[in-house]
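Milestone M4 deliverable, item 7.
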Amino acid sequence: MDLESLAAVRESALDYFNRSHALQRRRKRMERPGGDEADEAEGWQDIAALGWTGMLAPESAGGLALGLDGAAEIFSAAGEHAAPEPLLAVAGLGALLLARLDTPGANALLAELVGGRSLPALAWQESAGDLSAVPLACGCERRPGGGVLLQGEKLMVLPGAAASGWLVSARGDDDAVLLWVPRGTAGVSETPVPLIDGSQASNLRFEQVALPAGAVLAEGPAAQEALRHALAAGQILQSAELLGAGQAMLAQTLAYLRTRSQFGKPIGSFQALQHRCVDMFIHLEVAKATLDEVLGLAAQGLPAQRLEAEASRANARCTAAALQASRASVQLHGAIGYTQECDLSLFYKRVLCLSAWLGNASAHQRRHAVLSGDAEVAPGVAEWSGEFPRTADWSSMPETDFRRMVRAFLQQRYPQQLRYLSHRARWSEMREWYLTLSAQGWIAPAWPRSHGGMGLPADKLIAWIEELEQYGVARAPDQGIVMIGPLLIQHGTQEQQQRFLPRILSGEHVWCQGYSEPNAGSDLAGLRTEAMPARDAQGEHFVVNGQKIWTTLAQDANHIFMLVRTDKDARKQEGISFLLCDLRTPGITIRPIHTLAGEPEFCEVFFDNVRVPAENLVGKLHGGWTIAKALLGFERIFLGSPKQSQYALGQLARLAQARRLFADPVFAQRFAALRLDVLDLSAAYTGFANIVRAGRPLPASVSLLKIWASETYHRIGALLVEAGEEQGAVAGDQVLDGQTFNVLSPLIGSTAAMIYGGTNEIQRNILARQVLDLPA
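Output delivered:
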């Protein structure tokens, strides 16, 4: 569905749940735990009148055929209101299964479901925590003269008392069988299971249940594939409901923090509480990006195994985010949050139920690992015939072909001795590789073609990053490519673009950033380096005096872009300008600073009456803060790139394979969780990259990307040191499978990543004030 249609579906759903007082009805259910059939089915006829019973059914069956993306909007709205209707169990799982079967018996049942006359419940699970769609013990056998005999048990069948009957998966003589067992059938015993959110499940036992031949809805591969698809699609819709519940809890918490006062001020002004809210927001935004990406993939018609893997990815992320939001919101509400009187309790308990049904977060992490093959690290030799094109229609090239092309190029052209470097690469090491990419036309993958870039769409850009990181390609000094180049494309004059951009692409100009100063690190508005306008016989210029610090690889650069104060009397942010400067200009001194790793990665840069031509001013005089914010956005999206985490994860996987750590279930679980953190970082990154590509300004929420990326990188680095055991204390490089390996490098590098570009604490302050609108 297009965005306008999805928005209309969402508004309709929110309107219904508001008008029908869904939250109050959920509270009524919770006050009568277990309930009865009337409680379970309350509101179902209204759902049928809206057509939502058939939201996933084809139009030929009287359904709306919304697709998963449209249905996800309804489920998200249901989550935002803790809606009590058994939407997921019936309009989700039941309809998905029956629509997939497309047999006479299934079509008849689907028509009853769409009409609101029947609430069929899917009975598939046989043991706690089992995600397998293949029945293990529940069996059926053919009876002489036709019909079948059903024997076995099913757990956690929803809905409970309201179910009209059960769609039962069983093992036949040769393969899976799907059966319809109407309520009241002899031999079926039902044990009600009251749930904490006020709803009810059932445990079923089938004792020699005799069914007619017409009870068999499907069997063989068709039955199994339909069940696998229904469960996977249902888990994606469950993710949407979990996300909606988490977003509602965040909204309630923010409203409470803005109005509740302690010590004479709103508690929302307390930084510790703001940062807790920001973390809720970050987890929910990453979950939303993941869900949106998975819905997009599902719309392409994925095979069953891929759909199951993506469903587990979305479910694990949305479950974790909703649980984190539920726990944090109770804590931030204080004592009132611990009471049933607070509406928060309705969402808290709903999330507990949703997160336990259809697989919890850990189970989905494990399944994703199994289905996607986490232990595969190094690709084989890429098969690629023909030349490597300088330009192509990258959007239409299949991703598998694009990856194969990039992999082959790396294998043929990238210097082997530079793979998996443990230190930040210097220009002297990377110059030839930079020039190789430049000659190929691939040095600026994200730049538009009109300015000499590749113009890669978001999916190919992510693939590009992944292939380079997986192959162990070192990062060249690239501030010109990732920062000043994109800024000049958006804010520079045509003359500046013509003068600087080609020289960045060719490697003639190597750039560094001059933002931070002593006592003006994250507080850039406090900078004191001065640039006074002047005029002489050679023309208009600025005279620069002052000092910059933490300037990455300034000793390798020949140009610097910097913030300078051009009006000492103006308010802090209003007297700043943005200048470009040749570092070979007289009066500049550069002094390297060694990092924790012993590398001279940062520098101090001193300016003593340095003359900078006036045409090197970007934007308006005293208008540098606007330019700076744009560049900070570029920096944060760059620092939020999955590159570093992908590289560190590849190193961790190399060590794990060499030491056979994937056989350890504890390590395997932790690795699976980290791999999903990196995959979901890529989803969030893609959304912001598309904003840049569309030429729109980056929102303040881009700060979440830098936080998630650097902290994911740090978690991977910490596990790498732990997995290295005694090797985690070895200084310098080691050798692993014939390649350079450094256990400590990602941990030390990630420690810096959480500081530079504005510390993660500052980023949380930005999100709290500018995005969540919490009081100062």
